[in-house]
Specification:
Elements lengths: L2 E10 L6 H17 L4 E3 L17 H16 L8 E2 L13 H7 L11 E2 L4 E6 L9 H7 L4 E6 L7 H16 L2 E6 L1 E2 L7 E2 L3 E4 L2 E5 L8 E10 L7 E2 L28 H19 L5 E4 L4 H22 L4 H10 L13 H8 E7 L6 H14 L2 E6 L1 H15 L12 H29 L16 E2 L5 H6 L20 H14 L6 H5 L20
Parallel strand pairs: 1-2, 2-3, 4-13, 5-6, 6-7, 14-15, 14-17, 15-16
Antiparallel strand pairs: 1-12, 4-5, 7-10, 8-9, 10-11
């Protein structure tokens, strides 16, 4: 009968240059793989350093700490023996290994380049993230030369509907040449603007037998599968190791993995969960106390608020349903609670009430009651701490100063002003909102007594400012320089307006927010010019 092989692929939430944290997550994934009986474990690309190190890859310190991390992993005592490890390391050329590695492994040199690794009972090859998308991928040639298992340690970032392309390419490769394809991918934000969407999977002869989650708050996620196969040994890089189980210890209750249904997310779900996971990763690693969002009552700021609500839902599920210790620890620190606090959120709204802050920054003559009331109602439904204020005093202070210095009084065009003065008066409002947003973001945690339950905490926990400019506005240049789009983070910056509208309608049902369709049906208004009985400025005029 055929040999049974248990293989493991994982998605890790790594952080650029976090060598200690990255190594701990690698060890945790190895532990989970061994607990599942795996004899081979693969990982995301560059898992030791993190994927987004940019120019730090050129620094010698990055090299040094990478090798130190690898030595620490290999020296670990809790047991990483009897498992073949594919560990993502930064190596740029063929060279003699550092002495610490030579001493540990007895190996002097490291081979660089494409090769087949032959164990006692199988053979395998490697393929990187980008190579999967090339017209002639290395896995096809390796398969023709005898490779049975393809290992892809990937660092693939999230795009709408990109998962469909990945799965189609992997299935086609294994349908044409046969064999097993182990796909691993990083998960989460690693310090840059990209979100890596995990979804580790195992494919056998075109059939999906294991699939990890695409959007998750877990730091480590391991997928395992069995494959029944017996094949000849190929002379390549010889490894004195067997992937298959010992026939004397054969467990007749164990069966090869069967095909599973592929889990695809709707585009609206991808918008809901991808940015939400990224926001949580960025927040928990930034030492900030939450988010601040200027909430205008329009579609864009509404979509941004709903994304934060989606994040709060994921956090609440991780805390209440999964009892995720890391999420609980991070949440307590973010909201200013001591590490031994018994406080836990009772709902997603309870999470939002501690870390999400919104404000309607209106003008008495320019802002409508409709947008003001929509912003207030949405903030209430999602649990945000909301402020409703007018910025007239600051606005008139600026225009008065200008008139005092120049003896020129700028006017809106409806009152006889020039196009230049009309535009300048609108831009003043937008830019004042940016300045006020930064002020409120810095001081609101202090005003609310963030650390009242943890007086020893010296971190004031300032807020990250969220902007609400969609990709259509960026491509067309429809934005004001240094306005609210000059934020710390713009979660919807890569999403088109029509996709945002579909997402809002989806969230109205799936997040039980019946107020949301009202944002779609309301006429878009800029509200930067005075409202009169016969004039309301439309968005874009």
């Amino acid at each position: 009968m055929g040999h049974l092989v248990t293989l493991a692929t994982c998605s890790l939430n790594q952080w650029a240059l976090d060598f200690e944290g990255n190594a701990q997550r690698i060890l945790q994934s190895i532990k989970e793989a061994k607990a599942g009986g795996a004899s081979l474990r693969i990982c995301p690309e560059l898992e030791i350093t993190g994927y987004g190190c940019l120019d730090h890859f050129l620094e010698s310190d990055t090299d040094l700490h990478s090798w130190e991390s690898l030595v620490m992993i290999l020296e670990t005592q809790y047991g990483i023996e009897n498992i073949l490890l594919d560990i993502g390391e930064r190596i740029v050329e063929d060279f003699y290994l550092p002495r610490s590695v030579q001493k540990l492994t007895g190996q002097k040199k490291c081979r660089i380049g494409d090769a087949l690794i032959s164990t006692l009972d199988s053979s395998m090859s490697n393929e990187t993230c980008e190579e999967l998308f090339t017209p002639i991928s290395p896995a096809l040639g390796a398969g023709l030369d005898g490779s049975e298992i393809t290992l892809n340690s990937s660092g693939s970032h999230h795009e709408l509907r990109k998962l469909h392309t990945r799965i189609d390419l992997i299935r086609q490769e294994t349908l044409k040449s046969g064999g097993i394809y182990l796909y691993s991918n990083q998960q989460g934000c690693d310090g840059d603007r990209l979100y890596y969407d995990g979804c580790a999977m195992i494919v056998i002869n075109g059939r999906i037998v294991a699939q990890g989650s695409q959007f998750s708050l877990n730091d480590v996620e391991t997928s395992r599968a069995l494959q029944a196969t017996k094949s000849p040994v190929y002379e390549r890089v010889e490894v004195d190791f067997s992937l298959s189980s010992n026939p004397e210890g054969l467990d007749l209750r164990v069966r090869p993995s069967t095909e599973i249904a592929i889990k695809y997310h709707l585009p609206e779900e991808e918008i809901a969960y991808g940015p939400a996971c990224w926001l949580w990763d960025y927040l928990r690693r930034s030492s900030s106390g939450g988010f601040f969002l200027p909430l205008s009552g329009g579609v864009d700021s509404c979509a941004t608020a709903v994304l934060v609500h989606s994040m709060c839902r994921l956090v609440y599920q991780a805390v209440s349903e999964r009892k995720n210790p890391q999420v609980i620890k991070d949440l307590l620190r973010i909201v200013g609670e001591p590490s031994d606090s018994k406080w836990l959120p009772s709902s997603p709204q309870d999470v939002a009430s501690r870390l999400f802050h919104t404000a309607y920054l209106g003008m008495a003559e320019n802002s409508s009651k409709d947008t003001r009331s929509r912003a207030k109602a949405l903030a209430k439904d999602i649990g945000a701490y909301h402020l409703d204020l007018n910025i007239d005093t600051v606005y008139y202070a600026v225009t008065t100063l200008f008139t005092t210095v120049t003896s020129y009084t700028p006017k809106f065009k409806m009152f006889g002003g020039t196009p230049a003065s009309n535009l300048a008066l609108q831009n003043i409002q937008a830019r004042l909102r940016m300045v006020l947003s930064d002020l409120f973001a810095q001081l609101l945690p202090t005003v609310r007594g963030r650390n009242k339950n943890n007086p020893e905490n010296q971190n004031p926990g300032g807020l990250l400012v969220l902007g609400s400019a969609n990709v259509d506005e960026s491509l067309r240049g429809y934005l004001t320089k240094y306005d609210c789009s000059s934020a710390d983070i713009i979660p919807i910056g890569g999403v088109a307006k029509q996709d945002l509208k579909r997402f809002i309608l989806w969230a109205a049902t799936n997040f039980d927010l019946p107020i949301l369709p009202g944002f779609i049906s309301a006429p878009p208004t800029a509200e930067l010019e005075p409202i009169t009985a016969d004039y309301v400025q439309s968005d874009g005029s």
